Amino acid sequence: MRPTDTDVLLVIDVQNDFCPGGALAVPDGDAVVPAINRLAERFAHVVLTQDWHPAGHSSFASSHPGRAPFSSLAMPYGAQTLWPDHCVQGTDGAAFRPDLAVTRAELIVRKGFRPAIDSYSAFFENDRTTPTGLAGYLRERGLTRVVCVGLATDFCVRFSAEDARRLGFEVVLVEDACRGIDLDGSVAAAMAAMAGAGVTIAASGQEPT
């Protein structure tokens, strides 16, 4: 079955800094673009997310002297992985990949712009309670199934998929249209967690059914 009018393709953080040569490059991250572009042609509704940090964001290791990238720090909202500076507002690194087809996108959700809190999910900040507004948008549009693609499988894709399920949406993850960072087995853990939350795992050639 082809995508229906109540499906939305959620394209997560396909930005220069998450692709090879970027500040927080996901291995093989640019390989998701052809599959995503093919999928976007089939969907009536496409939403993009964009990591959009102010300089000096609290999730940057550089904001915490003596702390190394990829270490963890306790924040008021829980444990936070500290990242290299990335996707800083207005920089080329924060821009979408130039070969990503964006013209069909009906909405761009910018996240991570609050200096004191990171935001992996397209639906909530990392406190898991402050909403981005995406859920309300989808509901008002009558969209009921969220098809997740993009970067990175084990962080922003995972949190977005799990939150969509928690909010009552049907969710499909297109595995070959995602890539992960894979910190200490985090991709396998993310895939297991998403499946356990009721996310359907599919391939781009078969999605959705």
Please give the radius of gyration in angstroms.
Answer: 16 Å
Mean pLDDT: 96
Structural class: alpha/beta
Strand order of the largest sheet: 5-2-1-6-7-8
Binned, the helix content reads 10-25%
Q: In what range is the share of β-strand residues?
A: 15-25%
Give the H and E element order: EHEEEEHEHEHE
Report low-confidence residues grouped into runs of 5 or more.
none
Give the total of beta strands.
8
Helical element count? 4
For the largest beta-sheet, the strand count, sense and barrel status come to: 6 strands, parallel
**Outline, from the CA principal axes?**
globular
End-to-end Cα distance, whole Å, is 5 Å
Oligomer: single chain
Explain what this protein looks like in three dimensions.
The structure is a single chain. The protein has helices at residues 32-42, 134-141, 153-166, 186-196, and strands spanning 7-12, 46-51, 72-75, 78-81, 105-111, 145-151, 170-179, 200-202. It has 209 residues and is an alpha/beta fold. The strands form two sheets. The chain has a six-stranded parallel β-sheet. Strands 3-4 form a two-stranded antiparallel sheet. Helix 3 (153-166) runs parallel beside helix 4 (186-196). It is globular.
